[in-house]
User: Which sequence fits this backbone?
């Protein structure tokens, strides 16, 4: 399907806001968003733009890239340097009505909360890219769906058609409730759009009557990492799960990706193809805990990496890398009183009752900021709280003592999942329950 | 810093192509994995090294000749090849390894919208060069680990320009016999260029294995690749060649980069090609060590693919990339096969006995 991405380049002037509003709102509608989502995205874009008009004397023009991801729309602001105070992009930021400076940041807070995800990354050439990502709303899977229980002896991989994809999502959503099913599989129409966007791929297995009896999903979660979901099997046929896994590995074997991660393993994930990466605790909304394993495999030979570490983290990293046979050159980061900015920025990524914090910027207020986030999550009764640390970014290791001192424990190393390896920390919720 | 407009500059087929990152040099690998010795069993190199006469040339090479350009078209080597095979010197084009001559052929015959046809699980460079040059690579699944002639023929359309056959196939070692290859060429009937890559042909002793060069007169659309990297142990000098009918090679010559083959490589190759004793000794080593591996892998209960060539594929009950890392820690380097679309397989180069023993010992420890 041909995509309809477009670009805007415009001066940073408040009088341009109606032009921007009209462009984004119309684009969102044309791209298939419902009116409520389109307005939320438009509001978010408008607030960021307005904020920049007021705070960026040095920036004359701004470039916006608008992407139609089929199941989402993304608007990227691209501007030079890091001239803005982005503290309001912290989900927990509370605006003091007494403080006029903070009131000006209200717009950014609205922007952050009006979209599903917000990313801030360095762009090539010294620019900064601020991405606003808004997904479309889809009907959730409904009704009782099952396949007949007759015995099947044969399977074959089948062409991926939209109706079969929806059927696959419906069957997956009705699997054993103890399985951790990623939320997108609860929305059959969304899965179709995800596959059509080219960002997600699915392999389906069918029986003699071409009825879907199994499938597997994968996507590129970072330039070096493929995330795998499944396999999901709806009828027992010998060798089907392995065939789905092998098909997926054959498809990505010559890609740029280094590894495959499965954070939602199913009983049908053949362990022969994967390595146990580690375990996390998963809490139900009621606070019941169970362990979830994460599996991994590399697609080729490991090329080795440099890893930044804090002295308090070194022993853990060494033991994990030794267990996983991953060659890593650990470098201790020394913090020697150098100046850091005043405000930290953490982004929050929600999926069901799970939230993942990612540090965008370090700041002197990092401890306070982290605590405010934790208070907010406690208030919202969110128990699955994670923090992602890119071990290729030396500045992030400054946060190690802070995390260790706030009941976070390192739980998983996801090789090559970010610029370098990604260390996942989990908050020990104890007191929240 | 100036922002380079990559969106505008870079063709989509380059943006979509993923670069191949080769292994690091041995000293780096040893440091990374903490091993003091390293048996390289990943690149199908010849453990006996180059033939004796080639070694002499390397030893005696006068350093001052490094300042002088080589023969731009490997003049004397082509004379030698012509003498050996009874052909005209202009029927040969020499490249910086056989990889380079793959590019020559694809550039010579393909234009936007064209396609090449090969297998899905074979030497990757045919596919890579086509794709990063903007042409479609039609990949036909292997059948019983071998190229599927019928399925390849079915893929041909009016935009198909070249069919690549790796004979024997790397990494499965299967081959088309003379009857099958000729039958295929008859069916193609000169409408496309058929490349037969014979990088490992010198390892094959089977009577029905076809000599592609001997078929050139009968099939003028046939192009044969050979290399000095495998049997002749000159992989580090990078030298390979193609041979075809004069009309076809004259077309390919237009895309041939001259002066890409260095003087040492040309001279070492001239002397290597006559050394029948080297071929015999290598074949004996390969046969003996294949038999050893077959026995030991059988004892371990592993399934394996042993056919022609100086390599063996083994299916493991663990991830091939994990096996790679664990074996590296023991000083044994194998080739992971997921990149060849054989998940959980590793490919092992046949090497001297101590290397094979180390491999088997390593395997026992990790399984």
Assistant:
């Amino acid at each position: 399907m041909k995509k309809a991405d477009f670009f805007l380049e415009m001066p940073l002037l408040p009088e341009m806001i109606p032009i921007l509003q009209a462009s984004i709102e119309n684009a969102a509608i044309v791209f298939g968003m419902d009116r409520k989502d389109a307005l939320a995205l438009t509001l978010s874009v408008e607030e960021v733009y307005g904020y920049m008009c007021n705070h960026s004397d040095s920036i004359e023009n701004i470039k916006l890239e608008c992407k139609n991801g089929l199941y989402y729309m993304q608007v990227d602001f691209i501007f030079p340097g890091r001239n803005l105070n982005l503290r309001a992009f912290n989900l927990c930021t509370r605006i003091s009505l007494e403080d006029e400076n903070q009131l000006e940041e209200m717009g950014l807070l609205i922007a952050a909360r009006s979209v599903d995800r917000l990313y801030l990354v360095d762009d090539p050439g010294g620019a900064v890219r601020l991405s606003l990502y808004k997904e479309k709303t889809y009907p959730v899977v409904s009704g009782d769906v099952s396949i007949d229980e007759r015995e099947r002896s044969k399977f074959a991989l089948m062409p991926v058609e939209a109706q079969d994809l929806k059927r696959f999502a419906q069957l997956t959503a009705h699997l054993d409730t103890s399985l951790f099913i990623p939320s997108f599989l609860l929305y059959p129409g969304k899965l179709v759009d995800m596959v059509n966007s080219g960002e997600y791929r699915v392999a389906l297995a069918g029986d003699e009557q071409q009825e879907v009896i199994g499938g597997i999903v994968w996507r590129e979660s970072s330039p070096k990492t493929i995330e795998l979901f499944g396999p999901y099997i709806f009828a027992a046929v010998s060798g089907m799960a392995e065939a789905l896994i092998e098909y997926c590995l054959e498809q990505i074997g010559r890609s740029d990706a280094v590894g495959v991660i499965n954070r939602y393993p199913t009983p049908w994930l053949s362990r022969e193809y994967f390595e146990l990466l580690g375990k996390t605790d998963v809490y139900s909304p009621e606070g019941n805990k169970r362990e979830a394993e994460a599996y991994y495999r590399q697609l080729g030979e490991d090329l080795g990496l440099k890893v930044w570490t804090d002295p308090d983290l070194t022993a853990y990293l060494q033991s994990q890398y030794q267990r996983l046979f991953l060659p890593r050159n650990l470098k201790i980061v020394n913090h020697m009183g150098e100046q850091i900015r005043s405000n930290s920025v953490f982004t929050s990524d929600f999926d069901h009752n799970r939230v993942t914090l990612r540090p965008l910027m370090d700041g002197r207020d990092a401890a306070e900021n982290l605590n405010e986030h934790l208070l907010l999550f406690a208030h919202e009764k969110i128990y699955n709280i994670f923090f992602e640390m890119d071990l290729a970014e030396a500045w992030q290791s400054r946060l190690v003592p802070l995390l260790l001192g706030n009941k976070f424990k390192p739980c998983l190393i996801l090789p090559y999942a970010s610029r370098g390896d990604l260390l996942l920390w989990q908050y020990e919720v104890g007191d929240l329950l | 810093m100036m922002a380079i407009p990559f969106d505008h500059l870079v063709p989509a087929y380059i943006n979509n192509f993923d670069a191949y990152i080769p292994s690091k040099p041995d000293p780096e690998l040893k440091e990374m994995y903490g091993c003091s010795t390293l048996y390289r069993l990943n690149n199908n190199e010849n453990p006996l090294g180059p033939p004796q006469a080639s070694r002499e040339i390397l030893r005696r090479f006068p350093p001052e000749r490094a300042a002088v350009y080589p023969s731009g078209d490997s003049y004397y080597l082509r004379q030698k090849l012509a003498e050996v095979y009874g052909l005209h010197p202009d029927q040969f084009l020499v490249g910086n390894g056989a990889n380079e001559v793959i590019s020559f052929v694809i550039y010579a015959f393909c234009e936007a919208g064209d396609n090449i046809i090969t297998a899905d699980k074979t030497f990757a460079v045919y596919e890579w060069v086509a794709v990063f040059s903007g042409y479609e690579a039609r990949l036909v699944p292997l059948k019983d680990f071998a190229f599927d002639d019928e399925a390849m023929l079915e893929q041909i359309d009016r935009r198909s320009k070249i069919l690549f056959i790796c004979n024997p196939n790397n990494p499965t070692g299967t081959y088309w016999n003379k009857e099958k290859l000729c039958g295929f060429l008859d069916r193609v009937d000169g409408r496309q260029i058929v490349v037969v890559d014979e990088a490992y042909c010198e390892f094959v002793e089977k009577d029905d294995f076809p000599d592609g060069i001997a078929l050139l007169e009968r099939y003028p659309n046939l192009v044969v690749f050979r290399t000095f990297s495998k049997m002749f142990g000159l992989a580090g000098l990078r030298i390979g060649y193609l041979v075809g009918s004069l009309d076809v090679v004259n077309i390919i010559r237009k895309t041939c980069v001259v002066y890409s083959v260095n003087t040492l490589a040309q001279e070492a190759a001239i002397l290597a090609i006559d050394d029948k004793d080297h071929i015999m000794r290598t074949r004996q080593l390969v046969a003996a060590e294949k038999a050893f591996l077959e026995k030991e892998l059988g004892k371990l209960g592993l399934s394996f693919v042993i056919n022609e060539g100086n390599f063996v594929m083994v299916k493991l009950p663990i991830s091939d990339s994990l096996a790679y890392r664990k074996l590296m820690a023991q000083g044994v380097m194998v080739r992971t096969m997921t990149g060849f679309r054989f998940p959980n397989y590793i490919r092992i180069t046949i090497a001297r006995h101590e290397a094979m023993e180390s491999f088997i010992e390593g395997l026992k420890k990790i399984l």
